[in-house]
Amino acid sequence: MYKYALNLFLSILLSLNYLHAEFDYVTVPPGADPTISAEDGGDGFEEIAESRGYQTANFTDDDLKYFGDSKAVKGGTLSDKGNRYPATLRTLGKESNYLENTNFEYLCYEPLLERHPITWEPTVPRLASHWKISADKK
Questions:
Q1: Cβ(128)–Cβ(56) below 8 Å
Q2: Where are the beta strands (DSSP E) in 46-89?
Q3: Average pLDDT across the chain, whole number
Q4: I need a labelling partner for 134 at 20 to 30 A (CA). Which of 30, 41, 71, 89 fits?
């Protein structure tokens, strides 16, 4: 009985110490990581990219209505159910005409840019943060 009470007391004491412990969190000032140079994407990268003709996404309030609602609640669970399994996981070729194959392709091969839903210009970033499109658009 004494051993059980001592273990319980030590467990509670340890739990309380853990809850009230002060942790040394890494504090990074807002903005870019100061250890990263501007050439590698750190503070000052925007000026370098702009001087070389690169662009980035600058959405207006009117544009943002096409990409989601600012009042949307973050979190939750999205459940999706497929009622069939495709004959193959290939995205091209024989028996690749299932809708599920298109979803696999979209998940495996994410593009650098996506087209804007209204203007249809490739100006919506996916993997790229900055880009430059040549005059001949090739």
A1: no
A2: none
A3: 78
A4: 41
